Amino acid sequence: MGEMEVRRGRRVVKLSSPDRVLFPGDRVTKGDLFAYYCDIAPVLVPHLRDRPFTMKRFREGILAPSFFQKDAPKGMPEWIPTRPFRTYPREGGSRIVNFPLVNDDLALLWMVQMHCIDMNAWYSRVDKPERPDFVLFDLDPPDGGFALAARVAHYVREALERLGLRSYVKTSGADGIHVLVPVTRRSTYEDTRTVAERISERLVEEHPGEVTTQWLKRKREGVYLDARQNGPGRTIASVYSVRPKPGAPVSTPLRWEELHEGLDPRSFTMRAVLERVEREG
Fold first, then answer.
1. What is the average pLDDT value for the chain, to the nearest integer?
2. 107 with 141, same domain?
3. Radius of gyration (Cα) for the chain, nearest Å?
4. Are both 8 and 99 inside the same structural domain?
5. Would you place residue 174 in the very low, low, confident or very high pLDDT band (cuts 50, 70, 90)?
6. Which pTM value belongs to this model?
7. What are the backbone angles phi and psi of residue 38, rounded to the nearest 5°?
8. CA angle, corner 150, sides to 145 and 156, nearest 5?
9. How many domains does the chain have?
């Protein structure tokens, strides 16, 4: 496969090493990933636009160590906008980071050129960085526990409906599930985390053995509801992101009636998702 490129006027993204295999067990290449994101961009980019973006880079594919990069790298095209925000690293102190913004298809494809497999952005946008626009319920089941995760996701949906809240569901791309609740941008991250914690604690009481908020994995019994993912600077793999897992599964939005215990989340491959979007929008 020769060099691939996409051009918009004077802006251009050239893909180097398109034959580089990123998913060894499936022979999925960097060029395959580039072609998928080129096609899926119209429905993916709106979920990234104006959100600070964190690059998770897999230079040697999914079997080698990856690394996170928040600061826009040297050599990034000047037409990709950035916004500065103060961050607080785990090792202490603070620093100003210039986050890239993936606001169009060319910016998305440049991230693929930089070996980003999934696309990770904040829960809030640059105009109101302290005001998230959704609450996340991150469902982490035990190994091979997608069926249980699907059941618990419906418990979450029912609890939210009792509060008059509408929710949306997507596969995480592995065995997990993400339930998102849109909120007006008046709430703080502390507010959204509190809501997620209270609902999760109630579900633990109602469904012991199926739902847990136990952080230590060895002590868990059931699906872990991780409310702590609601916080400033946290990121989530966007809908339609390819995940760095065997089979190159895609994090796929579903209608609630599609989510059942017999669903295979790994059936949502790049080809299957493109066909689904073409068929259903």
1. 95
2. no
3. 19
4. yes
5. confident
6. 0.95
7. -60, -45
8. 125
9. 2
The whole domain housing 139 covers 134-229
- H or E stretch covering 180: strand 177-182
Which of 94, 122, 150 represents a domain boundary (last residue)?
Answer: 122
Distances (CA, A) of 227 to 51, 210, 247: 21, 16, 28
Inter-CA distances, 202 with 74, 120, 208, 246, Å: 47, 29, 10, 35
Residue 118 lies in a domain: yes
At residue 2, the pLDDT reads: 62
Q: 212 and 155 in one domain?
A: yes
Quickly state the pLDDT bin for 93 (edges 50, 70, 90).
Answer: confident
CATH assignment of the domain containing 224 = 3.30.70.3300
80 inside domain: yes
- The per-residue pLDDT for range 189-225, each reduced to its tens digit, is 999 999 999 999 999 999 999 999 998 888 889 999 9
Looking at residue 218, its pLDDT comes to 85
Q: Is residue 117 part of a domain?
A: yes
The stretch 14-43 carries a mean pLDDT of 97
Tell me which residue has tokens 């809908």: 239
Which pLDDT belongs to residue 6? 95
Tell me the residue length of the chain.
281
Element (H, E) at 7: strand 4-8
What are the backbone dihedrals phi and psi of residue 256, each rounded to the nearest 5 degrees, phi first? -60, -35
In tens, the pLDDT along 224-244 reads: 999 999 999 999 999 999 999
- Which strand (E) or helix (H) includes residue 41? helix 30-44
φ, ψ dihedrals at 37, nearest 5°: -70, -30
